[in-house]
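tmp note - DUF4271 domain-containing protein
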Amino acid sequence: MRILKILCLLLLTSQLAVATDARLAKTLEALTPQQRTVLYQYGTLRLYATAAQADSFRLRQQYLLPDLTPEDAATLATELMTNTTLVYSLQQPSRLQALRGVFTASRLLLGLAALVAAYALIHLLYSYWSRCRDWLVRYLSPLFRRLFSPRMLTWQLLLIGIAGIFLGPRIPDIVLRTLLVHAGLFLLWAQLTAITTREYNIRRYMREIKYSLRSGEDPWLAFKTVSLPAIAISAGIAWVMQHCPDPWYPYEVTVPMLAGLFTLPPLRRLEIPLSRVLLPFPHTVADEEQRTAAYVTVSLFIWVGLLFLPVIMMPSLLVLTFLLIIALLLLSIAKLTRCGMRNYSWLQAVTLVFLCSGVLAGAQLGILVLSWMALGGIVLYVLIKYWEIPALLGWSWKDRKALGLLGMAALIWAIAALFRYRPEWFVFF
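out:
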């Protein structure tokens, strides 16, 4: 009986604490900027001055905080001191402030120009490279027949790409540095693929890549045409990460590493056993869906392994989480997978378990973005099933799209209201 009383007391205490936290959170959200400033000053005095001075300040400013008790004021002041970052802002316009804004806009525009230029250069190479090369071969062949032959030109561009990767990080200008590094990475991938496929036209070796991925007869073909260039690109990005301060390369390295891993011969031979993790029940499934299930299974194993590393590799974890959310949401759609009702039900369970695990893992590791991504995946899952489940039960949305959109709007509103009025249910920190 005593143990039962103690358990009841602990449960009541925890419920009171949750209710108090929710009330203080709503109070903090409703405070005006002037009230938050006063509470921040009060928290500063409590931390760096005497208790008498802090209480005297609070009493003088009590007319601004009439609804707060001393305990609530102390709690909110501590919260603001812990989670507030002071931002320097000038109250009156000045020449220095205007120049500072111009320089900030200039840096942002330079970064945007670098990304747009890199995309434009890659697009131009994709669109016009065959014509330029054919023109050079046709009209300058008497002089440069060997120098500009397709094979020699491929090796020359490969050397140019390697030079761009190694010399790019030394350039101080962010626009030229980003442009040169990404152009070098593209040339490295394109020319290595041309060498491994022995096709020197980009459209032709793209067909070779698709054929090697779809054909399961020769696992070494996919290793040669896909895995080797992907491993080389991963090594190039890893080298750039060590010598360049730009923050986006740790995020870019994840995709080529996964491409190189998926096309290794041992994994190609294990595609059917690996796909049984997501499709455990016997059913006729297309080869592409089976291969996708195997890739997602390997990615899930890698994701779990990243969580247990001594040092969390946050960029790779976030990119892999995003890719897994997209892949599992697509696999959980019955019309895309066509794997039978039992496999469909199992995929729903796996998807929900992964999304909930992402929320909990982000809370446990202190990675707020990871929790947000998983919560966003849960919301997308709910919206997808809103449209899919009635169709599976025989309901047709063909002539009821307006009604369906109205219902989806109500569902989104209900989710937003739940986030607003029960925020403690979604805070795991």
